[in-house]
């Protein structure tokens, strides 16, 4: 009896299933398209409104500029170079400073974070000082660094380092503290020394914490480099901002901002790519 | 010489007191006396939360007793020794290592050369039936498969003493019976002494030579029962034997009382 019942209902099911699945897929595709169109429309609307208001002199075009002028400025910088030299060179200088500051800040943050997370004595001794240092608004250190290290890249690197260090440090510290105690016990039972536990259990399980901070901190490194350049430099996108401001060139300031945004987005993309490679061991649904 | 004649594990009046986060003191085990002979399979049963797991951490060297002595092979325990294997209740496989690398971890930590560790790990993976899964990551396995990885990772170190803390409690009933049989098979070849903590009385009788009943916390030994069921055993069939049921009834009389005490305390806490 029962096999017949199943075979009788089966064709109904199979004829229904693909139709339903297809319509669901179609709905998902359509939703994606609608979201994309809405995004583009929003961008066009904002830029169009800005352009229109500025051209109609509702907002002051001298102060607020307009998208077409910003684009012209970027175009001129690309084709004719800036007052400081080619645009590529300015971006490269800023990027180098930010990258170097980021690498040093991340390395120091990870090393200190893991060390303090593992060694309770160090954490107890240094804890209050780190809190005090963290409460200083670190942007105000940038002028001091210019005084200390001069107009060259080292003062920018230094301000990038101080901005990057703290978020990375706190995440690495937290990551080292929150290691699954079962994993540590298991490693010790299996014969791991303290050093092995740190290298092969604590650091791998802290990496997901550290990576969250890497995303934010690259942005901070760029900010550090730009602010440093803005205060005093011989090259870089920050100096471009300062110069444009000095010559009342609002379009130049906006153009520099657009360039920075593109640089930051590309860096973010590279980081996400690296993260996917490193976290192959994680379930894909939690990897997002 | 004395190391050969002394029992595998000996606890003499061992007590363990923890400081609770609120600053109070919590005694998990008190005045515990227990001897486990060489090659013996001892199951420890008791009401939930009575301090059974603490007994294992004392033997393993992960924790030190507040009072009393813990001896392994006649020598007092000082830190984690290399004779001990421990299978934890929760998943303790390293999620960032592949299955093969997880099983290799123990020998590698102990300084075995890579090629040799890999060969030993492959042997044990084959024995637990996971040879085809060596490149997977733990999150790609089922709960039962992960437990098998944990067993292989423990046995690959050739432990003389095997401590198991409710290892199969997170598995479904069928997988559990299967894993129990596999554990018996793996263990019978090694001659290791086992302390198996569980709150499942059936599981303990089916597996063990000796069942130790603990009192409601702070835990101490209430009674020790010898299980005279013949080996090799199959968990599913041994359960149906009349002798098994007899033993079960006998032990439950002793254990049931402690469970009731724990339950009443819990009720008093709620009220």
UniProtKB/TrEMBL annotation, chain A:
It is a multi-pass membrane protein. Its main location: membrane. Residues 91-271 form the ABC transmembrane type-1 domain. Keywords: Cell membrane, Membrane, Transmembrane, Transmembrane helix, Transport. The chain crosses the membrane at residues 33-53, 99-120, 209-231, 251-273. It is found in: Cell membrane. CDD domains: TM_PBP2 (cd06261). PROSITE patterns: ABC_TM1. Pfam families: BPD_transp_1 (PF00528). Residues 1-25 are annotated as: Disordered. Belongs to the binding-protein-dependent transport system permease family. This is ABC transporter permease. It comes from Streptomyces chiangmaiensis.
TrEMBL record, chain B:
It comes from Streptomyces lannensis. Residues 9-241 form the ABC transporter domain. Keywords: ATP-binding, Nucleotide-binding, Transport. It comes from the Bacteria. GO terms for molecular function: ATP binding. InterPro entries: AAA+_ATPase, ABC_transporter-like_ATP-bd, ABC_transporter-like_CS, ABC_transporter_ATP-bind, P-loop_NTPase. This is ABC transporter ATP-binding protein. CDD domains: ABC_NrtD_SsuB_transporters.
